[in-house]
Design a protein that fits this description.
CATH superfamily of the largest domain: Vaccinia Virus protein VP39
Number of strands: 7
Order of helices and strands: HEHEHEEHHHHHHHEHEHE
Structural class: alpha/beta
Number of domains: 2
CATH architecture of the largest domain: 3-Layer(aba) Sandwich
Helix content: 25-40%
Length: 311
């Protein structure tokens, strides 16, 4: 099926682009911006519509379907790299005017059963953002131990029933062979988790945990945030949209850590290391946006500005 079969509504579209290119001034003609998670291109297209002729936009994405979508953009100012945003640090040091990271999984990824991201549709248990490389969830579950599965589901899904879920997965595997479909996994979790918040599927946390783990999402986020400090020019903006508490905690702590002067306790009279970021704002979707797009309800956007000259 083509990627156009499933539609995606970009969350905090205008707010993110406004924050990214705020106060660009005359230098905007030569500015380079980064859409670190192209997705289906909602943010990129709006950024391009707002950039002057001499500016550039570089995008990153691991998803081959996102790369195919990006090929439809013929603007000479635009380019995309088929790789994760952990490679952000390969860009020119201090040469980027703004970095946007939209950490949400796109609707076409969720809604396409062939991708295996959702418990709502039966499909192969894959969940890889980049289907050209790496191990699928089904492949990992085929050999993972109870302890390994417990750790992943507990730490990445914040699931209090992680241990019984892991035991049930391994027992099912030993009894009937590998778990290869989303319906199989969702059924195992549903039969194990007897209580859950109203309106929330029992498999939600387990599917989230396995997706985060198999794609090393939190590790990549940490690497990309650190890289942003190296590539952002003074005054450059960092804009990050998170969709669950694990991501937002990392972003919040990163901005807080670099938004204060650092003193060397071994040299109390030395000049402190200047803070590297200034926290600008925190934005949630409006009630109108959440009403129109329920998937926006958990989004949090944090904005920070590069202060010191990159080392």
């Amino acid at each position: 099926m083509t990627t156009s079969t499933w539609q995606h509504t970009t969350v905090l579209l205008t707010e993110a682009v406004d924050a990214l290119i705020a106060d660009a001034g005359e230098a905007a003609q030569q500015n380079v911006y980064v859409d670190a998670t192209f997705g289906r291109g909602g943010h990129s297209r709006l950024i391009l519509s707002r950039l002057p002729a001499g500016a550039q936009l570089i995008a990153f994405d691991k998803d081959v379907e996102a790369i195919a979508e990006a090929a439809q953009i013929t603007d000479a100012r635009f380019s995309i790299r088929h790789e994760g945003f952990r490679h952000l640090g390969e860009l020119p040091l201090g040469g980027i005017a703004g970095v946007l990271m939209d950490l949400g999984i796109s609707s076409p990824q969720i809604d396409n059963p062939d991708r295996g991201f959702s418990f709502r549709f039966d499909g192969p248990l894959d969940m890889r953002m980049d289907t050209t490389r790496g191990q699928s969830v089904a492949e990992w579950l085929a050999s993972a131990s109870v302890d390994q599965i417990t750790e992943v589901v507990r730490d990445y899904g914040e699931e209090r029933f992680a241990f019984p879920i892991a035991k049930a997965i391994v027992a099912r595997r030993q009894e009937r062979g590998p778990i290869s479909s989303t319906a199989d996994l969702a059924g195992i979790v549903a039969s194990t988790v007897k209580t859950r918040e109203p309106g929330k599927d029992p498999a939600t946390r387990t599917f989230q945990a396995l997706r985060i783990f198999i794609n090393a999402e939190l590790e990549e986020l940490e690497q990309a945030l650190e890289a942003s400090l190296k590539v952002l020019q003074p005054g450059g903006r960092l804009v990050v949209i998170s969709f669950h508490s694990l991501e937002d905690r990392i972003v919040k702590q990163f901005i807080a850590k670099h938004s204060k002067e650092v003193y060397d306790r071994r040299a109390p009279f030395a000049v402190p290391q200047a803070m590297k970021l200034k926290s600008v704002e925190r934005i949630r979707p409006s009630d109108a946006e959440v009403s129109a797009n329920p998937r926006a309800r958990s989004a949090i956007m944090r904005v920070a500005e590069r202060t010191a000259v990159p080392a």
